[in-house]
Amino acid sequence: MQNGILYGIGVGPGDTGLITLAAVKALSEVDVVFAPASTKNDFSVALDIIRPHLREDVEIRRLDFPMTRDDAVRTAARGRNAEAVLECLHGGRHAAFITLGDPLIYSTFGHLLRELRARDGLAEVRIIPGITSFQAAAARLEQTLVEGDESLVVATGNSDLDRLAKLLDAADAAVVLKPAKRFPALKAALQERGLADRARLIERCGLDGEAVYENLDQVPEKLSYFSLLHVARKGA
User: N or C: which end of the chain has fewer CB within 10 A?
Assistant: First the structure.
């Protein structure tokens, strides 16, 4: 029996119209969909995006990725998830692992891929890139990210603040994903560098409840997980 194929699929930033044709085609061919989720939350925006493109007989399986700093817990969970995917592939079934945005940018797919390769280096994997949240946000803001020889930093709000500050100092433009938990500190860092006037925050881009904050002082204390900071090019 021939083994199945695993498709690592980026389904876009949230807007159902921003899933690619390649992703739609692959989803129409799979037998199983693996949907990653935090053990604290079983809601899957990615799953909602792909439902219209699935066959009625497709099996949907949740894979838990614990939101913890305990390396032992995370490693054990990643190993279990890789085994679940390989069991499916070795049974001759094609599968998709879906992620918001792109599967190779701040995604759980990278962890799964490493674990899978460690167990079966011959497993067939096809990766389908997706439109990222910062690309969608730039389009929403009508803001060119970079031009010519300019540099763009893509960072996470979970980064060490000193390291992030150095990146902001060096780059011509920046996007900071997942800023919600540390927004006050990020805002202060931008203000200290005279970048606050070039920064805008967009919340739930392309989703219900979308909001754009042109002034960081207007950003509410409670922010959606689906938020990002955009620091525009000088003079933009």
Answer: N
Q: Which two tokens stand for residue 150?
A: 């300019």
| Confidence check: pLDDT of 39 > 90 | no
User: What are the tokens at 40?
Assistant: 């604290």
- Asked whether 94 and 119 are in contact (CB, 8 A), the reply is no
End-to-end CA distance of the chain: 57
My answer on whether 176 and 213 are in the same domain is yes
167 and 111 within one domain: no
Could you tell me if residue 206 is left (phi over 0), alpha (psi between -120 and 50 degrees) or otherwise beta? Answer: left
Q: Out of 99, 128, 157, pick the residue that ends a domain.
A: 128
From residue 101, alpha-carbon distances to 125, 163, 177, 217 in Å are 18, 24, 12, 28
- Residue identified by tokens 């890139």 is 129
